[in-house]
Amino acid sequence: MYSLKPIGIEEPYIESLTSYLIRLSEAHQVYPSSLISYVIAPILNKEFLIYSTARGGNRFYDGAKTMNGFGSNALDMVGALEKLTKVQRLGILTFASIKEVIPLRYLLKNHLAWCPVCYEEQLNTGDAIYNLLLWSLEMVNTCSKHRCKLETECFLCHKKIPILHRKSQNGYCPYCNTWFGTEVNFNRFLDESDFDYKITLMAEQIIKHKGQIEISASKQQVIRNLNYLVDIYTEGNMQEFARNLNLAKTTLWDWCNGKVLPPLSRLLEICYLFNISPVSFYIEDISVNKEQIAFNAGAYSKDTKKREIKFDYDTALSILQKYAHHSDSNISMNVLAKQLGYSKRTLYKHFPNLCKAISAKNTSVIKEKTTQVYVGNCLVIDQHVESLIQQGVYPSRRRVEEMANKPGLLKDKKLRDYFKKLIEDKIY
Q1: pTM
Q2: Which distant-in-sequence residues (6+ apart) come within 8 Å of 191 by Cβ?
Q3: What is the Cα–Cα distance from 74 to 64, expressed in whole angstroms?
Q4: How far apart are the first and last CA of the chain?
Q5: Which of 155, 126, 152, 120 is nearest to 138 (CA)?
Q6: Is it true that domain 218-303 has CATH number 1.10.260.40?
Q7: pLDDT of the residue at 305
Q8: 3-state SS record for the chain
Q9: What is the pLDDT of residues 198-207, one digit of tens each?
Q10: pLDDT digits over 67-122, tens only?
Q11: Over the stretch 127-153, which tens digit does the pLDDT of each residue have?
Q12: What is the spatial distance between Cα 142 and Cα 70, in angstroms, rounded to a whole number?
């Protein structure tokens, strides 16, 4: 096969692995489906892939977004393409090099996004049409070069475009063959202070310095830097820090204790709010330059209304399962929802059965405790009524409460009814 050179090496605008695969197909004048079915699948030697592609299944294409990440899909495809093209280091077209410090959660989009002006420029200059790795990041919604929003559906058929389709061509709709490029629209320019614009600039720095992050970054450094921000901004108060950044407290706790690493989207947001270089956050001790760190209150107040707490499905699922099935302690759904930082409605929407189980468990425990308290109070009443009768003193309600040292004990209707029946049985 042709030794096709990747585009944009060592730049923030490097192409993605799926883009490279599509260009390789175009270079050989075939659709990606043919290249995958007849050339790549036999090399990967994966039974499900050979079976699926031979019968026209979509399992491989549905999971293609992970090719730009760092899971087995990405590593297997890199290995196969390097073997076929003799081009080395194709892993730079993915995020494989920084997998130790950046989790896959919320990292990659499910569908293609693109800048139409970038496509138009590529066409007009005679360059190869390609998709940027940057565009595959979930938190990237703008093109900083042309200061416009990325497009996410075909202009003509209005369909969302898969990351990889059997008939993918970079810059064209695989369904209706519409060209996705357009001239720059000056009326749609984004302000340079726009939150999404700033996040895109920081994402570009992450991609540009992937090599440096791979060498110098560590999970421990990320944890230390997060804890440092919590210490200096809220004097170690995680709940307040989480609330101020619109985070669930349990999520922040997991990050600061190294249980999980923060998604890139959230870390970029934190860097934006504290005016910290994202590359520095991964590779340096930010406390060394503490005088440069300042919470950007203006940016926070301006942008926080647009941002909602991202629903952390896995964390919520884990905690709900613990309370529903594995925990001896019980909790009400109101309290649990507050602890997680989500509304009760949101939790019931995603996990109706678990929420009902937790609620039923809590109700059962409350009923059991109520019964135990009632039985205990009945025994106390029995004891003091009997004692007063033996002393020849009428067991009035007030005397019983005084002896039990429980003022208002017999205000409870059930206990009051029990007391009346007991007096009737004992005296009359």
Answers
A1: 0.71
A2: 197
A3: 9
A4: 106
A5: 152
A6: yes
A7: 44
A8: CCCCCCCCCCCCCCECHHHHHHHHHHHCCCCHHHHHHHHHHHHHCCHHHHHHHHCCCCHHHHCHHHHHCCCHHHHHHHHHHHHHHCCCCHHHHCCHHHCCCCCCCCCECCECCECHHHHHHHHHCCCCCCCECHHHECCCCEECCCCEECECECCCCCCECECCCCCCECCECCCCCCECCCCCCHHHCCCCCCHHHHHHHHHHHHHHCHHHHHHHCCHHHHHHHHHHHHHHHHCCCHHHHHHHCCCCHHHHHHHHCCCCCCCHHHHHHHHHHHCCCHHHHHHCCHHHHHHHCCCCHHHHHHHCCCCCCCCCHHHHHHHHHHHHHHCCCCCCHHHHHHHHCCCHHHHHHHCHHHHHHHHHHHHHHHHHHHHHHHHHHHHHHHHHHHHHHHCCCCCCHHHHHHHHCCCCHHHCHHHHHHHHHHHHHHHC
A9: 999 999 999 9
A10: 999 988 899 999 999 999 999 999 999 999 999 999 998 899 999 999 999 999 99
A11: 999 999 999 999 999 999 999 999 999
A12: 24
Residue 179 has φ and ψ, to the nearest 5°, of -75, 135
Indicate the domain borders of the chain: 17-187, 218-303, 313-363, 364-427
Place of tokens 């039923």: 360
- CB-CB contact of 390 with 426 (8 Å): no
165, two tokens: 């389709």
